[in-house]
Every structure is written in structure tokens, then in C-alpha cells.
Amino acid sequence: MTVTHVPVAVIGAGQAGLSVSWYLGRAGIEHLVLEAGTPVHAWADTRWDNFTLVTPNWHCRLPGYRYDGPDPDGFMTRDEVITWLAGWLDTFDPPVRAHTRVTRLSNGPTGGFELTLGSATGEDTITCEHAVIATGGYPLPVIPPYADSLHESVLQIHSEQYRNAEQLPEGAVLVVGTGQSGAQIAEDLHLAGRQVHLAVGSAPRVARAYRGRDCMTWLSDMGLYDRPAAQYPGGKAAIEKTNHYVTGRDGGRDVDLRQFATEGMRLYGALADGAGTLLRFDPTLTAALDNADSVYNSICADIDRHIDQQGIDAPPASRYEPVWIPESEPTTMDLVTQNVTSIIWAIGYRPDYRWIEASAFDGGGRPMQTRGVTNVPGLSFIGLPWMHTWGSGRFLGIDRDAQHIAATIISNYHESVLRLAVGH
Hints:
Keywords: Oxidoreductase. By secondary structure, this protein is of the alpha/beta class. Helix content is about 25%, strand content about 20%.
């Protein structure tokens, strides 16, 4: 049945968009969820085979549904997350139109919004009063402009395309970037026995466990995941930094790049540029490693203060001491000489809201919003990092964020109905 108008359109059927749908459904608000693929497909499509969550399983909570398995302090694998999400989807029936991409959002002819939809059967439009953008904060993978000038014999993929070591040609691998994906993919290749070269970025790191508990459990007890972005220590500069690298693999452990170096991984500073088979690196390795360790120890010190203030009985405090220090800063690499046959770009993603024709974005193309609500009447966002707190964009904060967005829509919806009923 063709729908030409719906009060609320949710664009994106990941866990964030479906969480808003859950609350709208409970309130009896007619809505439609539009999804370019299938619900929560990104978990199967963009994670590598040995992917695990970096947050403990007890963080996993969605509307009406929480992790209740035997290992709340463990870390679900990719396939376990897919199964867990499938169990959640079995608890309700969201009105999803799959394989339908919204290619344009513009002002509606009589208010609200008009959505242009593309699918295998062609293009059509629908209108809505409220639109919730749940397409993710950064959908476009970043590849540097000089990548095209590198020698054609070298395979280049983005981290979202990586699945396992076997998909890559024989030879050494260069991983560029040490955010969560880059650091964990480098570890995955290292454990698979590949020679790994790693261009180390500015990402900080965190201990997996400290003084008898997972660090993220300590930080949750300390209220850091509940603190609004505007009140977070360090302000905007702190919340815009890359996430700390750590892993949940094999029950969870630190990611220590220095330790990898003692085991044969080769570390470099940030990759500056390249052409043909020659790459050039900035001499930033020592500073990057020192900064990551400084953040690691700083977080542990914050936990120490919390333990002291609360009088908690815990194992003694400690500090990380470097197990390896670079003797020099390599600034060049010849791909042929080092037998590097593949490069994995793990330098992040960028926003892409060009399809949205609304004055809701800053100069960097990011939504201007407060807890997901913009100044454009009826337009809101869900699932963005730091949309409200550190928990936003993670399983831990999605339920709260979705409840707020849905409550805003429901309130506006009932006010509109009341105005129509009294003739205003």
C-alpha cells in the first residue's frame, strides 16, 4: 500500500532509529521507518570477523530490552551482538520500509517536510510533519586525496571493508590510524601472524581493567557517561577527540602499541603523504605514545580519587610504565622494500547531510542540535556521538536519547491535534 503522508518519518533503521520507533509505537503515534538496507544491517556489513564490543555487555540496553546473559562484564562478539539485536526486534513490530533510501529532504508544500525516496521500483515522495535523522553521524569513510597516487600494485581498503587477514594479499600490511578500529585491526593482523606497520595517530588509550574492575564500569559509577556534553571536563575540545583505544577481545585487555613493537610490529608517526611506493611520516611517534600513556594514567588517577573519596576497598593503585621506547623516528617508507602489499585506512568518517535542505548545520556540516532537537521545527537527530552525553551513540545512552526525542515529538503531535480540534 503506497503511503503518501505520515505524521513522523524516521530515516534509518539502526538501533537508534528503531529505539525512537519503539517509543512512538507505544504512544500510538503513526510513523514510518525508512531504511536504505535492512534493519541494523551495519553490524553484519561493516565489522570485521573478530570484532568485539569495547564496552561491557551490561552497557547494552535498548527500549524494553537489556543484556541478560551469563557474562555482564564480558564483551559480545559481532555475531553475538547481531543475535542480541535480533532478539530485541522480535519484541516489537516497527513499521520499516526496507531497501528505500531517502535521497532528499526538503520543505513540504504546506509545511513539514517532503522526502524523495529511491528504491528498486523507482522514485516517489512522501510528506511528514516530523523527520528524525537516524543515519549515523559519520557515514562517509575518509580516504586521503594522495591515495590515488600510490602504486597500483598495493591494495587499499577502508577499515569498514576489512574482514580478516585472509582477504589481503600475502605480504606486510600498513594500518593507518589508531582509533578504536585501527588499533584493533592492527592487533587482529598481528595475532594472525602478519607483519604490521602502524601509522600512529593522536588517539588516547585507556586501561581495560584497573583496581579490580573494568575501567568503563568505574567511569559509569563516577557519572561520566551521564554528564551532559556542555559540562564535560575539557569542554568541546575534549569531546571532539578520538575515542580511547582498548579491546574486548578474549575477555578484554589493554591495547599496548609499545608491547606490539617489542613483538615485531613497526610503528611510525602520522602518515603525511605519499606517491608511488614512497610514503612520508611526520616525526610524531614518541609524542603520540607518550600522550596516549598520559591519558591512560590520568584516567587511572581519576579512578584512584573516586576510590579514596568513596572509601572503597580495592586493590592498590598503579601506573603504566613504558615497555618500549622508540630509538628513532622513521619518516619514510618504501612499500616495495618493506614488502607492503596492502594498506588499511582507519582514519575515520565524515558527515554527509547534503541531501537535507534545511538550515540545521554548522560550518563543518554537523547538526546544530540540543539533545537531538534542532531549531528547524520538526527536524531532529538521533544516534550522534556526544549528542547529549558520552553515552550518546552507544548502547548505554541510546534508550535515554530516543525517549527524549520521542517525547518531544509526541508532545508536539498532541499540541497540533489540539490546535486542529479547536480550529486554530
